[in-house]
Amino acid sequence: MVMKSLHRMAAKSLWFVLAFAAVSALADDMPANYTRLDWIESDATNQQWIDSGYSPNTATIINVSLLARSPKDAWAVFFGVIEGSTSATSVRFRYDGNSHLQGLFGNSNASEGQIDSVKDGEYQIELKSGCFNITRAGSDPVSKQLTSGTTIVNAPMYIFCQNEYTSATGKSAPSRYQPMRLYSMAIREGDTPKRDFIPCMDDKGICGLWDNVEGKFYTNKGTGAGFTGGVTVAAGATLAIPASKNILTESEIDAMTSKIARFDPDCEADIDFNNDKTMVHAVFDHGKMAVDGTPYIHATYAIGGDRRPTYSRQARGYGPVRGWMDLHADSDSGTKKGNNLRVKTDHSLKHGNDSGSVPLGVKTAFIVMDSSYGGGLPIIDAINPGNIVKARTYSDFTSPIWGSGTSSILTGGETRLNGIAVSGTTTGFTGAPELFSFTTDGHEFNAAFFGYYNAGGDQAYEVLGEIVLFSEVLDADTRGGVEAYLMKKWLGTLPPGYADWTGATVSGAGTVTAAEPKGLPQFDNFTGTLEFSQESLDFTIDCVNGTVAEAFDIGSATLKLADEGVFNLSFKDGIVQPGTYILGSFGTVDGAGVSCWAVTPEYTADDRYRIKVVATTDAELVAKVMPFGMLFIVR
User: CB burial class (10 A; 0-12, 13-18, 19+) of residue 250?
Assistant: First the structure.
């Protein structure tokens, strides 16, 4: 029994249904570009979590429907907030040991709200001052009276973990993550709704919670993979999966021959810290820190004051928690002249040496940044930008990205923010976490400094994330693929035209339509039909490992193709070897199947191999690579 909403509960739980009715009165009016899910789920590995933005008080009432996975540790928390280790002012639902669940609402005696736990149990929970009501699927409701205090910690509640709040510093931190499947969550104060969280997925394939009260989408703030989600497509209903342009992977980017460097401050192994791991000496080209002569970003020190950035690990905006280089912070000496980073290749030059900068000839650049401090000049060619870049009003993020008089090498190329082309001579930064990228007019830009050095009597303002540099002007598809990689990783979203539904699970007996096999959701107990709407389908075959990147598996469901079309096959690294490569698995085929579908290429360029795509009697769509001249019979 999957309890997706309280109205499905048995009559014996009617009291709980009525108690929740006032919370669910809001209309389900999420925007059209969101798909409602039955649930979203976190896991023990990636430790996804959400900041609800709501601080509970003595009038708060919390109603939640969830599936409790096995405890990650003895004190793992499903949702809540605590001040230090003081349970007396906390609001939490957690594991106590490995065999009990506890609801706490300002009560110092945690055992008051304790019940036995059941592995993978589904629970309906109501938590409020003085009372903890809980019902497990298949069991009678349980009501626990709590001796509640009059003070609740004034800090936001986290979901999928707890907010461990430190009142002395005013800082919040996620802790004691607990994997769970969340069906619904609503918060009110009396009859006034404060949050009405609905599991959903946006048109990019990002799973999270839509709040009907605020009209706001809450996504994962953890550092790993995002939430997974599930949706049931009822018989007669259709779920449309949007087509997506190609999202590049980290390994694909690193393998590109024109990539000059990729600096990633979220990879701590590639950072040279000072003793207390707060100030950054250098960030090495990712994966090459042990190779002499490879570039890295070097932080200046002891010349007019300490200008090293501070390593800041946090979530900015609604993206995940990652490590950033905060050039605004200069905690050691308090200099106001402008922190900056410089490209070096001599690894023997430590942070105290200001010489030896080696500009890189760049034609395409990507810089993840947070311009909330103002923006500044995240990349320049010299200490005092003048040969190529003219100084902009670094204290105002709305001033044009390229200052007046900037060379046509930059203004003649394309400037982009978050995957969208903008006029760099009239458009400023966004004042938020963003992806700044540009291509030149075909000439080289000498990238030597990150962060504006000569900031005068003010700060430099830049907060930088990952930086990727290329020696050629990338074509639009490749550039977009790099943007998609960086935006998904750092900002928790994707550019227009990109989608990744691999984090969703589809069940039911309806129809799923998709333009292509890439980026499909997972299928679990799906008995409906997967219909590909295009008359050409692309697959990438890895002959060395015998795998296909876009391979799909719909179990016993029906596969439907157009009456005729073309399978476009490409081979990873150009390696073609004889074999049978599975493109997809299914139950049955609707209509003519693949009998009228062609394959490209049908022969390899050297005529050594012939290639066929067939639907076998084993209910598999396979590509057969055969030595030329082999007789192939399809039964």
Answer: middle
Alpha carbon distance 211, 157 (integer Å)? 15
Type of residue numbered 388: I
CB 279 within 8 A of CB 310: yes
Element (H, E) at 372: none
Q: Where are the alpha helices (DSSP H) in 386-443?
A: 408-411
CA angle, 236 as apex, 234 and 242 as ends, to 5°?
A: 80
DSSP E strand boundaries for 371-477:
414-417, 420-422, 433-439, 445-447, 449-450, 463-470
Q: What's the pLDDT score for residue 616?
A: 84
Give the model's pLDDT for residue 587: 95
Q: State the DSSP code for 576.
A: -
3-state DSSP call for residue 120? coil
Q: Per-residue pLDDT tens for 609-628?
A: 999 999 887 899 999 999 87
Q: Smallest Cα–Cα separation from 228: which of 257, 201, 195?
A: 201
3 state SS of 477: helix
Report the amino acid identity of residue 253. I
What do you get for the CA distance between the two ends of the chain, in Å? 43
Tokens describing residue 157: 């509640």
Contact indicator for 556, 527 with CB cutoff of 8 Å: yes
Beta-sheet strands, E only, within 488-544: 504-508, 511-514, 522-526, 529-532, 536-542
Residue 21: DSSP 8-state:
H
Query: What is the bridge-based pairing of β-strands 180-189 and 360-362?
Result: unpaired
Please check whether residue 366 is in contact with residue 437, taking contact to mean a CB–CB distance below 8 angstroms.
yes
Q: How confident is the model at residue 630, as a pLDDT?
A: 53
Tokens standing for 299? 């932080």
Regions of the chain with pLDDT less than 50: 1-26, 289-291, 302-303, 331-332, 334, 634-635
Q: What string of H, E and C letters represents the secondary structure of 220-252? A: CCCCCCCCEEEEEECCCCEEEECCCCCCCCHHH
Distance CA 526, CA 559 (A): 12
Give me the pLDDT at residue 571, please: 94
| pLDDT at position 551 | 95
Which amino acid does the sequence have at 411?
T
CA distance 79 to 38: 19
Report the SS3 class of residue 335: coil
Q: How far apart are CA 345 and CA 317, in angstroms?
A: 34
Distance (Å, whole) CA 267 – CA 339:
21
Report the C-alpha gap between 387 and 627 in whole angstroms. Answer: 59
Cα-flanking dihedrals φ and ψ of residue 183, to 5°? Answer: -95, -40
The pLDDT value given to residue 278: 79
Beta bridge pairs of residue 296:
284, 344
Edge to edge, the sheet with strand 588-590 lists 238-241, 511-514, 529-532, 558-560, 588-590
